[in-house]
Design a protein that fits this description.
68% helix; 17 helices; Cytochrome C Oxidase, Chain A; globular; mainly alpha
């Protein structure tokens, strides 16, 4: 990728022919527009899920019931998880994929432009169904984001809306994944072999295969749930000869690879940002590719570590315990490679690099608590406590979300043609990093002391840590509103004009097109030498 021949002329010839007004968005087939719509949708859902989180934390500010009934509290905990995972994190990564994959591999667009449009417009429908389920008779599902049977069999119509939303959002994911695979395998520029592709494309290629493998499994679980609810089947109903534990097996066979669907693209973003600001090539590129593939394969072999408390035989516990410990090895390889990339590089600490380093620090902590939870005897004690809540927020918020912010700060100059305010970006980073730890670190202690999750009330001895966590959560939420109004919107409206290559250490085809990236790019394929 070092020397890239590219003809700028073709980019400007067709600048006049794109549709304007609402048609441009409703009938969008351009990967950049669709990527932007994904990112906007995901941010709206992030704020919606964030409001739910702050309602949960407000209720937990002190013992006793303050502002809501326990039933509504359970609806909030269930919906917060569903909205954040299916509405915020996954669509955000697909938005990045839509924007960056064609630019990074030198393709003019995604392979299936109209399917791309359809897969996006399914999202607002699914999102509206999810959020609208609060207004159904009896409210939203209160069976947890996992929708475990038999609870989910007993819920009201809000549960059906969540099941339908799951189907719609899953269909969107499958179409997005097909599009990404076909684009990467068939539309790379001449000379761009698979082993020359940027890491972000690699992580998304592997993630797309994971999506195609596990989304139908989720659809199966939800369909069986639906027929148990309305068509007299007894898949998960013990009274009719069914098995509620089977639901857990089917669900987590989707749910564990899903965890990696939400973190592998994050690894890809970090693998782009760290070399750029270390001004070095990524250390151990091929080992990174193999590590990503190993994580994907192993992710299918660890699902029952979510189920140590269900009374599985010791042999099963041992298998899933060792498989879970094994999956930390390729993840450790990645962390080692990122650190080795920075070793003796000439580092600078602009906002994208700060978020990448914040990711590295806090994600590694989440990884260690994951290893602790992999030990079956310890997990049986900690299962269903706030220790688990702390663990997966360290992995998902400090993992996925910090990587998304790192990617936004890194690539947004290319998208908008304007530089964001570096000072405000740094305020956003430090405010987010500190408030995140204030909010979630005390939860480790709450969990070790035995405070259960999903409870609206708690004994008085847990008050102090809960109050610290609530203050941190409100501060963290405020920082994301600050990001929207003080960083993102000003950067889109205007600011310092961005150069074609704003970061001197950045490499790749995306930096050979003008900033902002024109509506049509690479109509003449670039030659990768």
């Amino acid at each position: 990728m070092s020397s890239i021949a590219h003809d700028h002329v073709a980019d400007h010839v067709h600048a006049h022919d794109h549709p304007h007004g609402w048609r441009r968005w409703l009938f969008a087939t351009n990967h950049k527009d669709i990527g932007t719509m994904y990112l906007c949708f995901s941010f709206v859902m992030l704020l919606s899920g964030g409001v739910m989180a702050l309602l949960i934390r407000s209720e937990l500010f002190e013992p006793g019931l303050q502002i809501m009934r326990p039933e509504f509290f359970n609806q909030l905990t269930s919906m917060h998880g569903l909205v954040m995972i299916f509405g915020a994190i996954m669509p955000a990564f697909v938005g990045f994929a839509n924007w960056m994959i064609p630019l990074q591999i030198g393709a003019p667009d995604m392979a299936f432009a109209r399917m791309n449009n359809f897969s996006f417009w399914l999202l607002p429908v699914g999102g509206a169904l999810l959020l609208g389920s609060f207004f159904a008779p009896g409210g939203a599902t209160a069976a947890g984001w996992t929708m475990y049977a038999p609870l989910s069999i007993q819920m009201g119509p809000g549960q059906d809306m969540a099941i339908f939303a799951g189907h719609i959002l899953g269909a969107s994911s499958i179409m997005g994944a097909i599009n990404i695979i076909v684009t990467i395998l068939n539309m790379r520029a001449p000379g761009m072999t698979l082993m020359k592709m940027p890491m972000f494309c690699w992580t998304w290629l592997i993630t797309a295969y994971l999506l195609i493998a596990v989304m139908p499994v989720l659809a199966g679980a939800l369909t069986m749930l639906l027929t148990d609810r309305h068509f007299g089947t007894s898949f998960f109903n013990a009274a009719g000869g069914g098995d509620p534990i089977m639901y857990e097996h089917v669900f987590w066979f989707f749910g564990h690879p899903e965890v990696y669907i939400m973190i592998l693209p994050a690894f890809g973003i970090i693998s782009q940002v760290i070399p750029a600001f270390s001004r070095k090539r990524l250390f151990g590129y091929s080992s990174m590719v193999y590590a990503t593939a190993s994580i994907a394969i192993l992710s299918f072999m660890v699902w029952a570590h979510h189920m140590f408390a269900t009374g599985m035989p010791v042999t099963g516990q041992l298998f899933f315990m060792y498989a879970t410990m094994l999956i930390s090895v390729p993840t450790g390889v990645k962390v080692f490679n990122w650190v080795a990339t920075m070793w003796r590089g000439s580092l600078t600490f602009e906002t994208p690099m700060l978020f990448a380093l914040g990711f590295l620090f806090v994600f590694t902590m989440g990884g260690f608590t994951g290893l602790i939870l992999a030990m079956a005897p310890i997990d049986i004690q900690l299962h269903g406590t706030y220790y688990v809540v702390a663990h997966f927020h360290y992995v998902l918020v400090a993992g996925s979300l910090f990587a998304l912010f790192s990617g936004w700060y890194y690539w947004s100059p290319k998208w908008t043609g304007h530089m964001y305010s570096e000072l405000r970006g740094k305020i956003h980073f430090w405010g987010s990093l500190i408030s995140f730890n204030v909010a979630f670190f005390p939860m480790h202690f709450l969990g070790l002391a035995g405070m259960p999750r999903r409870y609206a009330d708690y004994p008085a001895q847990f008050t102090d840590f809960n109050q610290i966590a609530t203050v941190g959560a409100f501060w963290f939420g405020l920082m994301q509103v600050y990001f929207l109004f003080c960083v993102a919107l000003p950067a889109y409206r205007g600011g310092k004009k961005a150069e074609d290559k704003p970061w001197d250490g950045a490499e790749g085809l995306e930096w050979t097109v003008p900033s902002p990236a024109p509506f049509h790019t690479f109509e003449t394929p670039p030659q990768v030498l």
